[in-house]
């Protein structure tokens, strides 16, 4: 009886542990907005769509309202790169004023304004065709042409595993540690997308200003695979197994022969 109870307790405890976020936990620059960059498990083809149905499932999805979702993973073949995919589900029109925008605070220090250190970077893709990289400092944003060579990107209107309706998808591959656009392991992050056709602007964190790093979120990193299998479905399944095992172990035993005493079990 005691062994059965102990076994059931251990299984339930294991299920509970699955709810724990294994990512690095830091306070976000914008309170409550922190996410994890997981280590890449599959090669990414930067072509503006899901090359395979599981190409980006090794990245943690972050949802911005009902319109946009993005994921990211990092890799270290020799230098260190971060890779993002952004999907704008409600946008399937091509407008000159459309843009994707990503703002980076090199070491997540924050600031009420851009300040004078020049540690901020802004990647701006306009009209789905033109990439510009800026460096931020006390004088505002200054174009940084040399940083463009550190970035590979592509976007297209395509369906994906997340929506069968064709929509804009951006994939972007950024060199972090060996080029012009230097980004630390943990950094401040703002992600934004704008649809000029409907005048829809969405961002993470919500309503974050590109010129106010204190309003940006925090991107941690994890040198591990994204535990996508440890979902609530898996927890419920394992919990059910634990209950079944407990029921089996604790049910009333049938009478058996006692080989020690030669008597029938009580």
What does this structure look like?
With 266 residues, the chain is mainly beta. It has 2 domains: 1-18 and 230-250; 24-222, Immunoglobulin-like (Sandwich), CATH 2.60.40. It has helices spanning 2-17, 232-250; strands at 34-39, 62-64, 68-75, 81-88, 99-105, 120-126, 130-137, 140-143, 151-160, 163-175, 187-195, 200-204, 217-222. Strands 1, 2, 3, 4, 5, 6, 7, 8, 9, 10, 11, 12 and 13 form a 13-stranded mixed beta sheet that branches. A hairpin with a 5-residue loop joins strand 3 (68-75) and strand 4 (81-88). Helix 1 packs antiparallel against helix 2 (232-250).
Jot down its keywords.
mainly beta; Immunoglobulin-like; 2 domains; 13-stranded mixed β-sheet; 35% strand
Layout of strands and helices, then pairs:
Elements: H1 2-17, E1 34-39, E2 62-64, E3 68-75, E4 81-88, E5 99-105, E6 120-126, E7 130-137, E8 140-143, E9 151-160, E10 163-175, E11 187-195, E12 200-204, E13 217-222, H2 232-250
Parallel strand pairs: 1-3, 1-13
Antiparallel strand pairs: 2-3, 3-4, 4-10, 5-6, 5-11, 6-7, 7-8, 9-10, 11-12, 11-13
Helix pairs in contact: 1-2
